[in-house]
Every structure is written in C-alpha cells, then in structure tokens.
Specification:
Blueprint: E1 12-13, E2 16-17, H1 47-55, H2 67-77, E3 84-87, H3 89-100, E4 106-110, H4 115-122, E5 128-131, E6 151-155, H5 167-171, E7 179-183, E8 206-211, H6 213-216, E9 224-228, H7 230-239, H8 247-256, H9 259-284
Parallel strand pairs: 4-5, 4-6, 6-7, 7-8
Antiparallel strand pairs: 1-2, 3-9, 8-9
Helix pairs in contact: 1-8, 2-8, 3-4, 3-7
C-alpha cells in the first residue's frame, strides 16, 4: 500500500484514530467493561517495589537526579552510560525520535503499536507503512522494507500480534544511513529475552526502546529508556525538557533493572509461558465450535 498519506485530523489517518487505545473504552460509562487489551501484567507493583518507590518521596523537594538510575540501566545491559537515555515511558521516546532525528522516508512496520506513527505524523513526517501478512503469520519479510527508508520502526515482540521476530532478521534491516528503531517494550516478558537486541553495539543505527511499566504495573508512573549510539542519545536528550523523569520513576528504574528485578521479571516470564500454554490448550478444545487459536 502507498504509505504517503497526508490527511491528519486529530490523529485520524485513513479513517483510523491512531490515538484511540483500549483504555478509552472502560472510562466513565464503560467502567463496567473489562479491557482485555490491557498489556500491564499486574494491577499494582509488587509490595517491595511500592515500598521502594514510597521511600523516594522524602526527596521530592529536590530536582530529580537520574545519574544512579542511568548507570543502573547501563550496567544491566553492559553498556556505557553514554548509550542510555531515561524517558517518561517508551511513548516519550517515540516523540523524541520523531522530533529530533532528521529523516526523509520513515517506515513503520505494521501491525504495530500506533504511537510511533502518530508521533512521526505529528512531527510533520509523511510515513510509509509496511504491512505484514496474516497468511505469513505476521512474520517479518525484510524484502518489504523500502531500501531507501532512513528510519524503520518495528516492535519485538510485536504488539498486537505477539510475534517474536528473530534478532538476526531484524538486524539485517540495518544500513549505515538508516536508523533502526526496535520497540522492545515487551521483551522482558520473553523467557531469557531471546531475540533481544538491547545491549548490541555492532548493529549500525540501532535504537532500542524499553519500558518498565508493563511487567511491573507502573503504567501510571511513566518510566522507560532508550539504548543507542552516544551521538543519537545526545540528539534525543536535546529534545527533552529539563528533568523529564520524576524522582519516584527514577527510583523504580534503578531497582527494576537490579539483579533482583531482572530475576523476578524472568520468573514472571516463565509463569506466563506456562499460563499461555494452558490457555491455548483449553481454547483448542473449542475448535469444533469455530474457535480459532492464534
């Protein structure tokens, strides 16, 4: 399809509202509905994490100091701090990329979280879409990505299809002149984080986004981070306002990427794998009634 679509009225593109998310359905008059699209693992952070965040409240009179959290994220991925930028959730990172980077032909691989495309369009970019095919299981076909695309955005694992693309397949999209943005907001839900590109420094133009809100029930706190080459981090940091991440969010980041946090996230990923297998097996029993398990 031709992705050069210029109509942009209140986030509506091709009749689709890119900023209409599931939470809108359960507010106000929809309060009795259950939003099965919510992608946060738990209703609240675990008790030990809540206590740690609460312990940071005594420092609210001072401006946030992100150095310790930034160093902790860098250590978690084996990177120098110059390759880390803390953000108010992964959503802020999409806006920073759209506003700070000078790109001519951005491409978003769909199905995909709609916020990257919405942010690019809000920043004045004309966005091409690469639409992966259902008949292929929504697997990445690198040949569909235009060779002259200088910004490519892909999720891994992908929301909403849950497809986990091989890291090698994604890495082959890298070019010396291209920024390759990989949204790994759900990678800590993958046992062993297999196929992760976070921490890689051998892929040219690689930008990895991570979120700490899904696994830890912190959607209301807004905390995530970017991993990229130092020069890209500098460009993104210039586009940020001063003190973009609050003191409680910084406290959460530091402990979520600690050895304890990583181990607990891994245990949760293993539990979800077992729960998924149980759910799929149960649903498969209704195949004769027309239920199709994806």
């Amino acid at each position: 399809m031709d992705g050069h679509v210029d109509e942009h009225i209140d986030g509506h593109i091709d009749g689709h509202d890119l900023r209409h998310h599931g939470d809108a359905e359960v507010r106000d008059d929809g309060a009795k509905l259950v939003d099965l699209a919510v992608n946060v693992r738990a209703d609240a952070p675990p008790a030990w994490l809540r206590e740690h965040i609460a312990g940071s409240l005594g420092g609210l009179a001072a401006y946030p100091d992100g150095r310790a959290a930034r160093a902790a994220v860098a250590a978690r991925h084996g990177l120098p701090v110059e390759r880390v930028l803390l953000t108010a959730g992964a959503a802020e990172a999409f806006v920073l990329l759209a506003r700070a980077l000078k790109v001519r032909r951005p491409v978003v691989v769909h199905p995909q979280f709609t916020e990257p495309e919405a942010a690019l369009r809000d920043a004045g970019h004309s966005v091409d879409r690469v639409l992966l095919r259902a008949e292929d299981g929504f697997r990445l076909d690198a040949g569909l990505v235009p060779e002259d695309a200088d910004l490519v955005v892909i999720g891994n694992p992908t929301n909403p299809t849950s497809v986990l693309h091989p890291a090698g397949t994604i890495a082959r999209l890298a070019r010396p002149w291209r920024t390759l943005v990989v949204d790994e907001a759900f990678m800590d839900a993958v046992p062993g984080e297999r196929e992760a590109l976070a921490g890689r420094t051998d892929v040219p133009g690689l930008v990895v986004l991570r979120s700490l809100t899904k696994t830890w029930g912190l959607a209301g706190l807004r905390i995530g981070y970017v991993l990229a080459a130092p020069e890209t981090i500098v460009e993104l940091e210039r586009a940020q306002p001063l003190w973009p991440v609050s003191t409680p969010a910084l406290a959460a980041a530091e402990v979520c990427v600690s050895a304890r946090g990583v181990a607990e996230a891994e245990a949760g990923a293993l539990r979800m794998t077992a729960d998924r297998a149980h759910l799929v097996a149960g649903l498969a029993e209704f195949g004769s009634d027309g239920v199709r398990v994806v």
